[in-house]
Amino acid sequence: MLDDMKYMRQALEHARIAGRQGEVPVGAVLVDEKGQILAMAGNMPMRQCDPTAHAEILVLRQGARKIGNYRLTGTTLYVTIEPCSMCAGAMLLARVKRLVYGARDPKTGACGTLYNIVQDARLNHCLEISQGILADECRSLIQAFFQKRRK
Q1: Which residues of the chain have pLDDT under 50?
Q2: The whole model's pTM is what?
Q3: Alpha-carbon span 67 to 26, nearest angstrom
């Protein structure tokens, strides 16, 4: 079993970097079955002027380029906040094996909170999910970001 807390800490660091750059502080890390990091990123929609530049999408793209295949079978995706429906769909298409996320997202969470796209038996692939890894730290980071923006 991979060291979930180790990789989530790295995702948190990328979330902090994104937050310092004015992006919503979400970070992601993609790891292969041997525990080798394939990709790491934070959110970049504003900097890239791209609504799809979520941390999850960026690491899926980087990981696919690194291994030379869009199918990322056997991989685990670590993300600080529960993925949205776009990112959940991309994980299914990439055939990610496992999703590990920190805090639930009550507004857009599509991996168990509002929807559970990644475990919908009607689709052709399902992911294993582990949630709540460093959840308090992940939640605090994003809450502080939005509290600061509202002031």
Answers
A1: none
A2: 0.96
A3: 24
